[in-house]
Amino acid sequence: MIVTVASGKGGTGKTTVAVSLALSIAADRRNLAGNESGQPVRPLFLDCDVEEPNAALFLKPTIEERKEVGQLIPEVDPEKCIYCGRCAEVCQYHAIAVVGKKVLVFPELCHGCGSCTLNCPTGAITEVLDVMGTIERGWAGPVEFAQGTMNVGEPMAVPIIRQLKRWAIPPEPGDRPIVLDAPPGTACPVVETMRGADFVLLVTEPTPFGLHDLRLAVEVARNELGLPVGVVINRDGVGDRGVEAYCAEEGIPILMRIPLDRRIAEAYSEGIPLVEALPEYRQRFAALWEEIAARVRQAREDADA
Fold it and tell me: Nearest-CA neighbor of 190 among 3, 1, 8?
C-alpha cells in the first residue's frame, strides 16, 4: 500500500510525519502487512523532494547503491540533417529549432518525448542521456530507504521522481507499507509523487496560509487524481478553526492532531525523529497507519461493488 505524505504549504511538518510513520510501522509487531511471522514489517520510504531532500538527516540511512539519472534529449548529426524543420514542427515544448543550416536544441525545455527522433525523415536525430541528478537507496535500520537528488541548476524534478519510483517501488507492492515524502506545493513534482498512490495524507497547520494551500492540495489529490485523502493537523491549537471547518464541509477526515510542543522542535533541530524523542507517539502513528489501511480497503471494496 502506497501512501503519499504531502502538504500544499512548505514547513508544515510533512517530513516529520512521513519519517515518524515509517519508523512506527517498522517498530509495530502487529500484523500490519500480512506478516504472519510476528516480526516487524519492513516499510519502504522514498524521499521524493529531490530539490532539497532532508529525510536522510533523520533516518541516517546507509546507502548501498547509487546511479545517475536523467532523460534522453535529441542529438543531431549534421551529416544526415537536411534542415527540413520537421523536428521543430512536432515538438510541442519548443525544445528544438531549425535556423537556416543550424539545429538548436534546448535541453531545459525538452521533456524527452522522442517525437523529433521518430519524425526525422533522414534519421539524423539520436537520443543521448542528459544527466539531471542521482538516485540512491539503502537501509535505515528496518526501513528500506531511497531518495533522489537533483543537480543544481536543473529546471525539472519530475523525471528524477519518476525514475526514483520505478527503481525503488516493486512492480507489485501488494500490502507492503510504502511511504512517499512529497515535495511542498502543488506543482508537477507533487502530482508525480501522488500518482499511483493508494492514499494521500495531507499535513497542514491551523492558519489561514495552511488552509489556503490545503485547499489547493485537496484539489490536486482528490479532484484531479481521484485519490482518497486525510489530514494531519500539526501545531494544533496555534491558529483558528478554519481548517477544521473546511474539512467538515468537504468530508475530509482529520486523522491525527499534533500539538505545538517545544520538545518536537528541539528534536527536529538536532535531527532526531519525533517518535524517538517522544516514544509515546509511536503507538499513535501505528494507529494512524491502521486507519489509513482500513480506509484504503474500504475504498477498494466500494470500487469493486
Answer: 8
